[in-house]
């Protein structure tokens, strides 16, 4: 006696069980997401090694092999130069990002909450936002020089506009019924902002913060290329002038690693903020 075929009602249950099994198995794999994200960098590293050490497609000046770049990093680390370059660049990025993101949050909140401030200031901010980043360099050089203050200011300009745009746009589109409910509970002004409005736009705000952080790293390199005695941007310029492509690639790799690491830290803060507020 043959068994009856599975009914349409049975099949979704089986599919659901299989999907749940796959999901739970994926969750049980420790570091599975990190390991998956490492596949592409490892493949690129292998291709780099094949192109330089095995196939000899490039000369050592055009593209040195990975081992040579690694040895250059070890040499700079042992001399203490690499640590100094990384430390000063991190300091500049963190300071510039803190200043720029803080200003973006404040001004974005002001224009997002006040129609009068939005009508008065938004056209001017929009015009300033359209100015190319390097156009600020001559003014910064003229006013305060391109010392530490000038570099931090340039980085702050880069971080400011993505954060401002995200906060301003998000607050302008907060559900009015949610705001009215907050006011019904007696929330007004700053308390309404911190208790109702900002928690409602946490994902958008953090998206702006992450873009602003990426911009901070871009502006860091621009500021250090124009005038610096240390930093990863300075290492790029010095390596190019001396024909040290291995150190130049090392600086690029370090910028990529530091940028990803800082973005991952901000992502952890974002997840905690989402659990707390959103």
TrEMBL record:
InterPro entries reported for this sequence: MetI-like, MetI-like_sf
Biased composition annotated in UniProt, kind: Low complexity: 16-25
TM region(s), chain numbering: 34-51, 93-114, 126-146, 152-171, 192-211, 217-236, 248-269
Any Pfam family hit: BPD_transp_1
Record key words, sorted: Cell membrane, Membrane, Transmembrane, Transmembrane helix, Transport
ABC transmembrane type-1 domain residues: 82-267
Region annotation (Disordered) ranges: 1-25
Subcellular location: Cell membrane
Mode of membrane association: Multi-pass membrane protein
Residue runs in coiled coils: none
Superkingdom, taxonomy of origin: Bacteria
Gene3D superfamilies (UniProt xref): MetI-like
Family assignment from sequence similarity: Belongs to the binding-protein-dependent transport system permease family.
Protein name (database record): ABC transporter permease
Organism: Nesterenkonia rhizosphaerae
């Amino acid at each position: 006696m043959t068994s009856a075929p599975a009914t349409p009602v049975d099949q979704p249950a089986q599919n659901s069980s299989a999907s749940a099994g796959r999901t739970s198995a994926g969750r049980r794999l420790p570091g599975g997401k990190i390991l998956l994200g490492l596949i592409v960098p490892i493949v690129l590293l292998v291709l780099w090694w094949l192109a330089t050490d095995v196939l000899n497609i490039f000369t050592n000046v055009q593209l040195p092999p990975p081992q040579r770049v690694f040895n250059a990093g070890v040499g700079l680390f042992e001399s203490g130069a690499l640590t100094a370059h990384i430390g000063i660049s991190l300091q500049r990025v963190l300071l510039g990002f803190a200043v720029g993101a803080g200003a973006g949050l404040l001004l974005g909140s002001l224009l997002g909450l006040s129609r009068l401030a939005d009508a008065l200031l938004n056209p001017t901010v929009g015009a300033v936002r359209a100015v190319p980043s390097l156009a600020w360099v001559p003014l910064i050089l003229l006013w305060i020089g391109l010392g530490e203050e000038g570099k931090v200011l340039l980085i702050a300009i880069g971080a400011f506009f993505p954060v401002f745009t995200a906060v301003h746009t998000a607050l302008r589109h907060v559900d009015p019924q949610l705001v009215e409910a907050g006011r019904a509970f007696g929330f007004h002004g700053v308390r309404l902002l911190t208790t109702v409005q900002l928690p409602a736009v946490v994902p958008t705000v953090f998206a702006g913060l992450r873009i602003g952080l990426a911009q901070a790293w871009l502006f860091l390199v621009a500021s250090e290329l124009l005038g610096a005695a240390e930093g990863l941007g300075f290492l790029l310029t010095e390596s190019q002038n001396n024909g040290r492509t291995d150190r130049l690639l090392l600086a690029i790799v370090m910028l990529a690693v530091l940028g990803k690491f800082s973005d991952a830290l901000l992502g952890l803060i974002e997840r905690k903020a989402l659990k707390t507020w959103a």
